[in-house]
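Box S2. Input/output pair 1.
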Amino acid sequence: MVEQALAEQPDHDAAWLAGVPLAIGSEAGPHAPLMATLARRPLAAPAVTGKQVAYALGALVETERLDYVPTMVATIKARTDLSVAHIRALARTMASYGLREAAHECWRHALDVLWLPSDQEWELMNDLLAANAGPEAASWLRELIDRPGLGGQSRLRLRQLLAWLGPALEPGVR
């Protein structure tokens, strides 16, 4: 069965790969090794980018659970082809599994790679607030604002994000 699935896999097709966990089910059980093998193939191919990488990482978290998290975080940080939207989605997935520290690392990385202004900045702040990570987000924003060599426009935008975040951090506000 593994050989047949590998032979039939379109060349790193994101939709095909995304369908594997759906076809196998969220509890892959005896098919987990197949799903992990299929998910590792696109990660090993340098030409595979963005959505395919995100699907592959998601499939590996589904199959390998906690064992794969450190590798996943390192991969997210190393891949320059992952969009902020993909990083956010993967961080939300980790947070949904209760992997708060790993999710924080990914959200922090998303702030680092975010080109300001961006259509993702407010969604990223909302993700952080939804995960009760507002204080961490404020700290990260302050670090970024203080970064030497940061352009004036980026510094201004980061200050705006921090100002927007401020009221949400006040006690009793939700």
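Box S3. Input/output pair 2.
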Amino acid sequence: MALSLIAGENPTYLNVRYDITFIQIKEAGKESDKIIEREMQFLRLINQKYRKSSKSWSTRQQLIQALSYVQSKQLEQTQQLIKKEVDLLDICNIHEPRNYYVWQHRKFILKLAKTIMPSGDLVGLINSEKLKFSEGKPDASAQEYIDWLSHQFA
């Protein structure tokens, strides 16, 4: 764990951790969500410190997809997850507004929201996202995201 935190952008450490985590998930059965949530808390530290670590963002997405409540589309828990992810992404965008991985994870989270959230809640989330990034003169990354939102959620 310590090596992953010290060298969080190094895919080798993250790959080993990824393999161990998914072995634990398979062995845990019904308790797998606890392991996944623990690992996501750890990845939150890595994502905040090493915001351009592609392996940590892709692992985060795979863990989200492995959560039983995401797979079974349980609304309340998944909405809480979406809110936590958007909060993390907001923190990361403050420090590096042009980070490709953060923008791609935002799209991943919004696609997840589209499959689960009621239309009224989804519209509120989309409008909030558009407002967040359209204030002032958005840079090219933010503008591309706003355009993507408008196209995906028209």
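Caption for Box S3: The radius of gyration is 16 Å. The chain has nine helices and no strands.
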